[in-house]
Amino acid sequence: MRQQLDHLQAVLAPYPWAYTLVVLAGLLLAAWLANWVTKRVLLRGLLRVLRATPLGGRDHNHAVQLRVIPRLANVVPALVISAGIGVVPDLPPEVVTVVRALCQAFVVLTVALSVSRLLDTINHAYERRPDAQNKPIKGYFQVVKIIMFVLVGISIIATLIGAQFLHILTGLGAMTAVLMLIFQDTILSLVASVQISNDGRVRIGDWIEMPSQNADGDVIDIALHTITVRNWDRTVTTVPTKKLVSDAFKNWRPMFEGGGRRIKRALFLDQHSVRFLEPDEVARFRRFVLLDDYLDEKARELEAWNAKLAERGAEPVNARRVTNLGTFRAYVNHYLRNHPGINQDLILLVRQLQPTAQGLPLEIYCFTSDTGWVGHENTQSDIFDHLIALLPEFGLKLFQDNSDAPLEVNLHQADTPADVSPPPATARLPGGDASPAA
Predict the structure, then answer these.
(1) 341 SS3 class
(2) How far is CA 388 from the centre of its chain?
(3) Cβ–Cβ under 8 Å, residues 153 and 103
(4) Nearest-5° Cα angle at 255, 249 to 257
């Protein structure tokens, strides 16, 4: 082999740098072969061995997806180049030093990235434990990553400039206070960006609501220092990245991912329209298919209750009867249970709230299957259109603030000429007769 290299060097002697380029190409070829053998032969063999072990199940596949071992295998060609660059003839010493420094920096960075992926794998396996939610360890791993990458960065800088790692670390320790004062906002934004990207609390396209920053809309850009939000009025708000870590905000993404958007709205009923139903009225409600089961169950319940009262000789006033409001509430509940636009897997509730001066609130609490704004509003409007139009069937009225004076009187007074005296006002007597007012 040595004789063949000497012969090749003699043949290429008339051509400056030709032999150097040939040897350099051979070194690169050796590095490529080392990488190919490592990934195509050694790694595949290692994966087959792991699959044959009890650890080669689902957890192993997840580790392979994270590519911890393949990433670590990238160290091999860098080591080959670092060891063989000194053999290449006629290379300036400075070039050899720079190449070796770059290879060392690449090896350190690759090992750090592999360790980071390994920590992710360990955290993923830990989160499968039943008690993982009570004792999470993801935050500790994030601190370890930050410290590790800071040390790796210092090590790479020291390697590239040819300085000692401890010397740079000591110098940075003395300059920490000054650096933190100058780059305070940048450091806080950088830490916030890393935290946001790791835990995924905010992503591009999310709808966030942050009243303290006048932000209510979709996230359209995530940068180091700011996050840009396009509000619903088409204006744009820029929120400092660090605010999303230190301040409270609302992210609506889980609502879209959960498959349900909430309806929480009440019908304010006039309490004077609430009454008991007569037997013929109860029979008339048999027309509503949705009320069959309710009326049958209610009839059995009231019959049993009233039979006990009759045995005790109680007055009929103590008997229980069906009300129009209770029947309407049962209808609304069955109507929502059979509505195609309502998510039946989430909570569905029709309840009475505390009476107010504006009437008796009958609140509907449910979730639409369509989480989009337009689809949600259409479904909600269709439901309340139907219920409001159906209220007279149950003898119920909505409560709303208005004037008790007839509209015709107001119009008549408005049209009366200024020179014509209005007719004398009359007062209604208890007996129903009208007499001129004093």
Answers:
(1) coil
(2) 35
(3) no
(4) 120
Task: Answer yes or no: are the C-beta atoms of 285 and 295 closer than 8 Å.
Answer: yes
Residue pair 158/164 in contact (Cβ under 8 Å)? The answer is yes
* pTM of the predicted model over 0.85: no
Please report, in tens digits, the pLDDT of each residue of the chain (438 residues total): 555 555 555 555 555 556 667 767 877 888 888 878 777 777 676 666 666 655 454 544 444 444 566 677 778 888 888 887 777 776 778 878 888 888 888 888 888 888 888 888 888 888 788 776 656 677 677 778 878 888 888 888 888 887 777 777 776 666 677 767 777 777 777 778 777 777 778 888 899 999 999 999 999 988 878 889 999 999 999 999 888 888 889 999 888 888 899 999 999 999 999 999 888 888 888 888 888 888 888 888 888 877 776 666 666 656 778 899 999 999 999 999 999 999 999 999 999 999 999 999 999 999 999 999 899 999 999 999 999 999 999 999 999 876 555 555 444 444 544 444 444 443 333 334 333 332
Q: What is the rounded distance in angstroms from the CA atom of residue 341 to the CA atom of residue 377?
A: 11
CA distance 260 to 248: 23
**Range 58-62, long-range pairs (CB < 8 A, 24+ positions):** 59/125, 62/121, 62/124, 62/125
For 234, phi then psi, to 5°, come to 75, 5
Own/partner pairs, 56-60, CB within 8 angstroms, 24+ separation: 59/125
The CA-based angle 388-394-400, given to 5 degrees, is 45
DSSP 362-395: EEEEEEES--SHHHHHHHHHHHHHHHHHHGGGGT
Q: Length of the chain, please?
A: 438
CB count within 10 Å of CB 229 equals 26
Q: How far apart are CA 365 and CA 351, in angstroms?
A: 8
Q: Which residue's entry shows tokens 């032969």?
A: 41
- Distances in Å between the alpha carbon of 228 and those of 97, 185, 191, 208, 372? 45, 17, 18, 11, 22
CA 303 to chain centre: 51
